[in-house]
């Protein structure tokens, strides 16, 4: 077979093979379809940095061009044309227009994003996939729900017994996570400790410090009527607990790493900080999310030297420029074993996020693999094997989904 025919076969594999989206979020309900700035499709920024600056990024220019055709617009359409047209479209048809071309067979949805009343339940998304949607349980949300319930049952917050509070919380948190671990609807867990106190997670946490943190949370709740786990001893306790339970049940634990909004301390979002906790739980499957951008090479190092670490190359689609996306895919392949990489859209709120996350990912993967084949560094079997593993087979194995790819 000559090279051109081999490249055509690679192209067909990359662009048509079914995919497992190993990390995404729910779509907005029709009544809330326009309640969140649409610029969130192409940026993690907030406020004016999102609505005023993001439309001037290379990522936005590319997204505008790629969304124009499905919306029936001309190539000269601008960002405001895209927003105006989608607002006027039938929402059900809009969802189908952008979900159908993705060839996503299964979605693993983190349904703890914080806008539960505004989005559809995870099972609602089954209408767009060939296999049932699964849940990813966000552990900080679970912890906050338990704490709120405990605080609400106390008559006098100031009179809390730290030991009793710790024992009650620990017991309920362990039991709740154990129940999720046994639930076939739950594919895995997710931690956003990166946002709360950073990825320098300690395995040797102090019970006394956790008790102090719990009392501090109770006192904040008394004045603010809101629970947010934001004290390092408590956050470290939560992560250690889920890693211990996950070690026994075989379900992965996803960690937000790298790319995020301005609530993150960037220097604490590198997965390099996780080396001690990775060593402490060698039997826990640890998934580093979002390509760990801009720390992709550090994440690649961890996947190469620790058998229990995996790398998701998501969220960079469509947040980065096309050149940036290709560079990240190249960095993923620099050192990562290709049986340990998984793709995701980080799709959220808008069906267009799933569409762009798929289209751009397939494009970047094809271009990187094509260039390697042209240089004689990969043969066809190796290149197609990488694509199939990245888009489907690795997630199917790592999350114990037991799916068979549905080839159309």
Automatic annotation (TrEMBL):
Coiled coil: none annotated. It comes from the Eukaryota. Residues 230-401 form the Amidohydrolase-related domain. InterPro entries: Amidohydro-rel (IPR006680), Metal_Hydrolase (IPR032466). GO terms for molecular function: hydrolase activity. Pfam families: Amidohydro_2. This is Amidohydrolase-related domain-containing protein. The lineage of its organism: Eukaryota, Fungi, Dikarya, Basidiomycota, Agaricomycotina.
